[in-house]
Write a structure and sequence with these properties.
There is one protein chain. The protein is an alpha/beta fold. It folds into two domains: about 220 residues, Phosphoenolpyruvate-binding domains (TIM Barrel), CATH 3.20.20.60; about 55 residues. The strands form two sheets. The chain has an eight-stranded parallel β-barrel with strand order 1-2-3-4-5-6-7-8, surrounded by five helices. Helix 2 runs parallel beside helix 3 and helix 11 packs across helix 12. The longest helix has 23 residues. It starts with 7 loop residues before the first strand and ends with a helix. Bound molecules: coenzyme A and magnesium ion.
Length: about 290
């Protein structure tokens, strides 16, 4: 799996020059430059050109850069790829992916261009077909990550928005499972009420507890909460260190298990503990580079 942190992935409409400029100083682990639903129909062409110029000229530092193009079933998708390819994007985020064939078609186009030899593909998981095909989509060529499109999913399902996201759980878990089976990054959907900090914090915690790497965001005010919730906190780091120390001690005595805080610690817990420390270190490095 990509060892870069993806705690926060901020959407920025490709039409908003000021917001893109601002993003160069924001604490976003990743930026999703959007040409799809955040850009109005009559701004599509201008946004595409502006975004290609911005990506080619502006320095976004260590932030991961994804470009969400329009689907190839729209009148803009082909032109988006044509223009964005010239800016050697590190990843293309394809919306409304239904099957592995959608990814293969894009991968073939990337294969055909020297500028996009290294470009990875991310998939928006936001249709019923996509959720059912999650495993084969995750295994398709160039795939690096899933982004949950929970607004589109809610629209497709006809479900209600609930604080516990009960209607969303099957899709979230099916996609997460598929992503993990292939070692992909998995980023949770957006929280629409961008002024509601408590609601955002609770939804981030739910996504984190499910296993997501981070959350997609729509406003800079959401960054600090996602970054905090998806980072190992001091207690988690302390526990990981104590588990490793206790396990080393047990091993030295010829024992296969240790006990920390009244709970058993086995080999597999040590794998998790080391991941916690590695994530904390990767986050610290990223913050230093910003
Ligand atoms: N990325 C970077 N900067 C952003 C931003 C974003 N997504 N959203 C807002 N900002 C900036 C604004 O440019 C403004 O900066 P400034 O005052 O220095 O010029 C500052 O943050 C405050 O913005 P604010 O006035 O609170 O918000 P707004 O009314 O301009 O915009 C939204 C609100 C929701 C329309 C806007 O945040 C947005 O377009 N978000 C992304 C939507 C999107 O991409 N959706 C697709 C996926 S769901
Ligand atoms: Mg969508």
């Amino acid at each position: 799996m990509d060892s870069r942190p993806f705690r926060s992935a901020l959407y920025i409409p490709g039409s908003r020059e000021r917001a893109m400029e601002k993003a160069r100083g924001l604490a976003a682990d990743a930026i999703i430059f959007d040409l799809e639903d955040a850009v109005a129909v009559d701004e599509k062409a201008a946004a595409r050109t502006l975004l290609a110029e911005t990506l080619a000229s502006a320095d976004f530092g260590p932030r991961a850069k994804l470009v969400r193009i329009n689907g190839f079933d729209t009148e803009w998708g082909a032109a988006d790829l044509e223009v964005i390819a010239t800016a050697t994007p590190e990843a293309i985020l394809l919306p409304k992916v239904n099957s592995a064939a959608d990814i293969e078609a894009l991968a073939n186009q990337l294969d055909a261009r020297p500028e996009t030899a290294e470009t990875r593909i991310w998939a928006m998981m936001e249709t019923p077909q996509g959720v059912f095909n999650a495993a084969s989509i995750a295994a398709a060529p160039r795939m690096a990550g899933f982004v949950m499109g929970t607004n589109d999913l809610a629209k497709e399902l006809g479900c209600r928005f609930r604080a516990d996201r009960l209607p969303m759980q099957f899709a979230l878990q099916a996609c997460l499972m598929a992503a993990r089976a292939e070692g992909l990054v998995a980023v949770d959907g957006v929280y629409n009420a961008f002024k509601d900090e408590e609601g955002l914090r609770a939804e981030c915690a739910q996504g984190r507890d499910l296993g997501f790497d981070g959350k997609t965001l729509i406003h800079p005010a959401q960054l600090d909460i996602a970054n905090a919730v998806f980072a190992p906190d001091d207690a988690a780091i302390d526990l990981a260190r104590r588990q490793i120390a206790a396990f080393d001690e047990a091993t030295a005595k010829g024992q296969g298990v240790a006990v920390v805080d009244g709970k058993i610690v086995e080999n597999l817990h040590i794998v998790t503990a080391r991941q916690v420390l590695a994530r904390a270190e990767a986050i610290a490095q990223l913050q230093k580079a910003m």
